[in-house]
Fold this protein.
Amino acid sequence: MSLPHARTIAGLLGVLALVAWPLVFSSPFDLRIFTLTGVFALMVIGYQFIFGHVGALALSQATFFGLGAYATAICAVKLGFSFPTTLTLSVLVSVVVALFIAIPVLRLSSHYFALATLGISQIVTLVALEWVSLTGGGNGFAGVPLPNIAGVVIPRGWPLMLLVWTFVAVGAVLAWQMMRGLYGKACHVVREDEVAARSLGIDIDRIRLTMLLLSAAYGGAAGALFAHVNRIASPEALEFKTMVLCLTMAVVGGRTKVAGAIIGALLIVHLPEWFRFLDRSYVMVNAIILIGLLIVAPEGLVGLIDRILPKARGVDMAKVSAIRDTPKASPPPRGALLPSTTPILEVRNLGKRFGGVKALDDVSFELHRGTITAVIGPNGSGKTTLVNCITGVETPNQGVITLGGAPIGGRMPHDIVRSGIARTFQNLRLVDDMSVLDNVAVARFEAEGAGPMSALKVGREDPSLLRAYAYALHLLHRLGVEDVHRPAGSLAYGVKRRVEIARALALDPQVLLLDEPAAGLNESEQNDLAARLQDLAASGVTLLIIEHNMPFLRTLATYMICLDQGRLIAEGRPREIYENPLVLDAYLGRGATAAVEPEPVLAEVRS
Amino acid sequence: MLQLTLNTLSLGSAYALVALGLVLVLNATNAVNFAHGALVMLGSYLAFAIAMVVPGQGIVVLPLVLLSAAAFGLVLALIAYFPLRTKPVVAVFIATISAGSIFENLVLLTFGPEPRSTPPILGNSMLDLGGGLAINEQSIAVICAAFILIAGQYVLFAHTRFGRRMRAVAQDPDMAAASGINVKLMIAFTFMLAAALAGAAGMFLSATYYTSPTDGGNYMMKAYLAVTIGGWGSIPGTVVGAFLVALFEVLIPAIPALIPGLDAYLPTTTLFSMTSSTIALFITFLAVLLLRPQGLFGEAIKKRA
Amino acid sequence: MSASRLLDISGVTVAYGQVTALQGVSLSVDSGEVVALVGSNGAGKTTLMKSIVGLLPVSGGDLHLKGLSLARVSTHQRARRGIGYSPEGRRVFPGLSVRENLEVASFDAARGTAEMIGRVYAIFPALQEKEKALGWTLSGGQQQMLAIGRALMLRPKLLLLDEPSLGLSPKLTDEVLQHIPKLVADGTGVLIAEQNMLKALEIADRAYVLRNGRIVQEGAAAALKADPSVRDAFLGGR
């Protein structure tokens, strides 16, 4: 921390070392190994998209790599295409195959996804082995020419090495730029918490698909180069061993940083060479060193560097403030634009069964703009199911839910979020290792329409990220959160609650569903929160609050509904609800004075 | 036809042993042990080596194979699992792959690359059942031995306190520890048991099919398939999955022989090769995932109710 | 230190990364006593429970059970030395039957185990009716009883109950809590963490108030119950 530029200096030193490497180890053999390092580095940078950034254990990167190699080999030899054409074809073939792979496997969860991608890879490998007339079978497809760009043949040694490393450099810069902005942060949320990501309107499937296609494109390009360097495309490139190599490079180097890919490739390609003198036992030494590295640096060698030189604040706050001060940064809430006579949210005859159990049974109510409605009821009465049905996480068996008059039934959760229903979670779902500001800014992902390309601005910050920061900062201040650069995980409980509400508000919702927002807050925090929620309602946001805390609701809620065993047993003003015999019986406890009596006592203390 | 059924059953029961070992470790540690295939391969070489020293039928060799394979299981746990227990799951994944390659090269350095065969359990002659029916002794013996091992494992888990503790560890390690169970010891034992099952399977498989040092990956893949088809953690599902894998492997190459005259219409040698049976297996597997993403038998019980 | 002192904690600090979850917490439980640990969500009750059990490492301070340091004692050894733990969220073994759940936590011979299971069934007859049912099929209240029963199987000297009323209706809460005084009859010490302050103080002899990782108040349960400043801190409770 005392050296603000330490990371920049370390980075420069790293690049310098990389440039010096081939100058020091400059024998033809060393150059060839270094060229191969570049090829693998490019493959791993690609693999980081799917494996690192969205955390999906895809075992198909070697397939993209091998397909790229075969496409180049076959097109260059049989059709005589030049390098730019074969390279483009290699990338295309890999991307098209990735699209096919994506159809069956993209939605599968972790292990199934891993094995399904592996299964498809096995099929491709077997086809390559068996289709001898096209691929040369087990011997591979030999005789690949050196790359030919506009009639100029790139010879081996330095020129080929430079060509490969130019691709690595361009690929690395592109990858870094794509992932440093708002899109990269959205990927981070997808990786850490899919439920939270969905609640922010992020289309997880689409992000995963984009990442898989990017991985494939990089893998295909790396494979094309591989064919030229080795002068052959062989089934080995497709095999699981290559996949393991790629995975090892990514894990040993670091999963999300391009520097990690390069360090991993350098190390894993050179390790066997360094231990070649051990003859046949080098593989074992290699494996032992690998396990050692995993123990020392489980987050990768780049993670080790991060631990020594922690990252300084990532963004220029002056620019953020400049945007924040423009009036556009805080438009009025969407809800304010609708006439107040029609209900914003209407629930009609909602029913949901789990097996034989009726979790919700014919529930109907409506919410009007700017009101605060509380849902109470014993545990298991269906409150959470109600929220899940409204947010599209569960599909109701019957009934209609309309938002601003339009039915939202059957729509995807992220789609419902986009149309204006946001929620917070009972047990806080912030991404702990992201800063407070990032956590809230990510909610602007959809509104900003951020994609991987939106951050591709040379030498400048991602503009959509800056706008998102400005918006987030505004909301965080409104909720009284000042320390916005700390990791969210390090905050006190009460502050986390407010950050989560700020995040939900950043979605610019018409309706905000709060699941036990007062749980874990002390009295002064509760009062503070209640005041801020009333402010929100006054500005036109409609609130639906699930709560057990009666004193908290007493002053806050304008309307209450009580659920019991999935049925709506009472609704009305809070005072009416407290005196309703059905509510007393089901929720507050029959004859259990202990459960009812505290209320006046507590209210007394409160006043 | 009978022989075909027997082949399927014996191959399936050997695969079931392999897959059960994988699922045991999976349930206890939440990590896929990618060295498991190498343990199968190791088992067949251990059997081969032990048979050179201890003369006699496979039935004599088997207990020694179980014990020595278990010892390797312990080694595996010590080098590739315990040091990385608190680290990300992929770290264990790669560490076990590395450990597998250590085993592979250990065997390669000791025995060379030639495929080896192990002694059959009782004998390898054909038993004449009369009426032109003859069955292979080894197939029967493998089915019986595997059945005994699987049943033994079932009894251990369902009917002994030790086995129930292993299940408790698999379901909630923290609460198992807080209930007085020595979790590390249980996990070490799980690895040993898994390795013993893998070792036995290795011995059974190489009596018929030969094994070379690089075969580990192949076994690993079969077991992984069986576990996934079976529902990622369900023990009965895994056994069924293993038999399905074996069925594909035995049945598809046998189709031309079963349907005489088929080669008049189809290029049978390429269409019903070993390769195409593997491809068919994978496609079936992908179809299963597409239709039932939770595996044929659904997830094992939820971690937390 | 009195001869009946069971658990003695002094200056315990627990940190997760940059967050300090517990700061210099000191507390004691005597044999035959029910001690309540009250505080809102996130105050550090569960963290303290877990560090006593050994599931979370402490970064400072000492823990003693019956005068012996727990510093180098692993979780399962602590359990066998007499710390029974019923965790927040119950966490029964979902794939084991009720009887198996109880059985795995006993380290007696078969006869002793059967006898202990009998005692647990005597306290919670509902469990006996469900003897063969798997853990995950039980209702919340039954799981809570099973979690407490499982902790009792170790014949604990110290019983830790973390939020035994969480997720239970007011009626069920009363049902579970009314058993707790019975458990101390034989000299077992009980440390009970509860958000439901009034309920906890009703059954406890003494109590500690935890707030933001520190003990802010302690004393006889009756006195704390009457103290308005304590209530003040706990309006979050139902």
Residues 5-235 of chain C form a domain with the Rossmann fold fold (CATH 3.40.50.300). DSSP finds eleven helices and ten strands in chain C.
